Write the structure tokens for this entry.
Amino acid sequence: MIKHEHLSLKYMRREVLPTAFCPGCYNGIVMNALFQAFEELGIYDLRKYVFVSGIGCSSWIPSPYIKADSLHTLHGRAIPVATGVKLANPELEVIVIGGDGDLASIGGNHLLHAARRNMDLVVIMINNLVYGMTRGQAAPTTPKGMVTPTTPYGNPEEPMDVARLIANTNANYVARWCVSQYLFLKNSFKKVLGEIKRGFRFIEVYAPCTTFVIRRENKTPGQKLKELMNTCIGYEKWEKLPAEERTKHIPTGVFREEDKPGFLDNYKQLIARLKR
Amino acid sequence: MGKTYVVDVNGLLCKGCGICSEICPRKALVMDSVNPATGYPNPKLVGECIGCKLCMWFCPDQAIVVVEKR
């Protein structure tokens, strides 16, 4: 029998496989969706793409697994480095992949200001609800009442809704999908890589940590994935729910979609005006 | 009609998380014997595969492939 290969493997460095992620980690599913988007767009050569990441489990995705140029930078500083890469060589398409601990907590300021400037970047934030790499402490995105090592009696704080926060800035595209909504996620990747080619494009992926969230609930990754198919609903539907039902469901969807000129276009316009 | 599919599992990449057997709409995959090379159980096709490719998309370790049998 002919040995067949997974579609993602042609975009991955084979010599570092199997991945260092926990068994059942949803990061791999996000990788599948991203690579399938590349394949459906007919992009096989990633030489024009640069992947930038910070510190965290999901920051492991570009380096070492993606067969393209990647920069593994300081904790939380993926977006400033990516901004530098994009301004140094505007020909390149720069993609930032990181987690909620990297992009939303320590790098939250950078995220907000890159979105405000409408910087020409694609940012993929994988929200696993905790600081997974350091054994599951409470993060800004941890839901209220969740038990973690730093909140043993339940988290008293309200979580931060990162996708809606960025949707209120100047970004071109903001979406949030759950990892169980694979086709929506893949189509969103296709949109930001193929259709909207400028401005700040932000996709949040809701993917609870396998080890520190799902195992605490005594579930397997497969059971949780099937549960997420029912708990993640469109935000129009979510807004009609009564208040007590809202906390049990996760609003997903495209929150903002425009094709405004990005930072580089505005900057080039300024240079042209001053040269006259 | 009459299309048949086979499921190809790369035993060296599979970590035995069981997502494929949970997500399969026909319950056609079971976590079978432990692979001695990795120490993780690997999935095995026991029922009829309808080719929905859910297991392939949701495999976090890029270990499972669904192909049409010719």
Notes: The mean pLDDT of chain A is 91. The longest helix of chain A spans residues 27-40. The longest strand of chain A covers residues 250-257. The CA atoms of residues 21 and 147 of chain A lie 23 Å apart.
